[in-house]
Amino acid sequence: MENLYDLPANRLAEKLKSKTLKPSHVVEKIIQRIKELNGRINSFVFIDEPQALKAAKAADGSDLKGDLSGIPIAVKDNICVKGQDTTCSSRILKGFRPPYDATVIKKIRENGLILVGKTNMDEFAFGSSCETSCYGPTKNPWDPDRIPGGSSGGSAAAVASGQIVMAIGSDTGGSIRQPAAMCGVVGMKPTYGLVSRYGLIAFASSLDQIGPITKDVTDAAALLGVIAGHDEMDSTSADIETPDYRKSLVNDVKGLKIGIPKEYFIEGIEPDVLKAVKEAIELLKKMGAQIKEISLPHTEYAVSTYYIIAPAEASSNLARFDGVQYGFRAPHPKDIIDMYTKTRSQGFGEEAKRRILLGTYVLSSGYYEAYYLKALKVRTKIRVDFTRAFKEVDCIVTPTSPTTAFKIGERIDDPLSMYLSDIFTIPANLAGIPAISIPCGFDGKGLPIGLQIIADAFKEENIFTAAYAYEQNTDWHSKRPGI
Ligand code: GLN
Fold first, then answer.
1. Which of helix, strand or coil describes residue 334?
2. Which atom of ligand 1 is found nearest the CA of 126?
3. Ligand 1 centroid vs 179 CA: distance in angstroms?
4. 428, 307 Cβ separation under 8 angstroms
5. What residue numbers bound the domain in which 82 lies?
6. Is 304 a catalytic residue?
7. How far is the CA of 11 from the centre of ligand 1 (A)?
8. Residue 1 has pLDDT above 60, yes or no
9. Is the dihedral of CA 87, 209, 453, 399 positive or negative?
10. Domain of 13: which CATH number?
């Protein structure tokens, strides 16, 4: 007997449509699973059981309209849900309940999905391990001594352990793809501007994108279809027609041109990761894809460029958290300056403070040209690398992360080694292009490995075709942690 919580949304949706299952039964089972596991995994920071059950009961008696109607979903804690705690897993936002829904939440509700709760994350999405949350770290369901990846670690761990059917994450430099890789699930960062950022609490506005974390590629395509589309509430939202991504789910890569960038196969990649990725490339070739070595010459500057631009934007975005309007305010201040100082000193964690200092420094007069402006120029060069590459190939395949999940505590005191976790995911954010991570194997310790597929802006369909075809010819995505 298969466990209901192990099924992807597309399988559950069939059962819901044929009425072999009721939404309330699915939601009850999911909540039961959360209660069983969340103490150990810590992937959820809030669960709205009464609302979820109420919505499910209402769905029981109604016609299920959308493909994902009646499916339980979890949302990263940096996305505004009206009336529900939204804290970015930071002490400074404790008690903040937004008066409005983010656009993605609105779309999720309109499509009949059932919101179950908020998932844990690195504070303000700063991190690659989910350890900087004020609620404590999320654990990797494949090995609870290890990190689930970050910053959307709560979403990835919840999907991997069957505590939710599908989830929403955000990705500024890899925060959807890297935890998806480390938890053995599918995670996609769409093209910048494809999904509205309205109601996403900003980290770095020119890099942030919201995207799906799911059990398979079919679910990722369906959920992206729900959340994508133009939104006048986000001035960076692209005014384009979004296709039906499910039409790209064809098991055929014949003639698809896949680029393998030599700069992504460097020293420092764990041998098991390298082996799994090479085998995946071999398989794609056997399936009829044309494999071509390419070069993205500015790759080596991506991490340093990102760690100027992202903190610069973050320092500006986080200036609004001063104890006046949102969440936490330090008690007993002497005067207003003291109130700001104490609130920010007590409210932000160490990594958030590091980013604010770094960002303020690179934007300060005298350093702005040397750091920030320079970084913007390098960013353009990185974008141009991709533009050139996509004249020759339809997509690019790389590892998602150089390593599998590391031990909790291993990198937390060494920010530079933490920052290097995103060496393969950051370039897509700097270029504004879409990328997915899909499961492609396990290392010798039984930990999942992710394969990254990147495409040109608004060419999500190429990603889905390659990812789906690969998935159809392997069974990595159907493995579940024995938890
Ligand atoms: N790990 C990267 C960082 O710490 C990316 C985080 C993200 O994508 N939100 O900034």
1. coil
2. 4
3. 11
4. no
5. 4-259+390-478
6. no
7. 32
8. no
9. negative
10. 3.90.1300.10
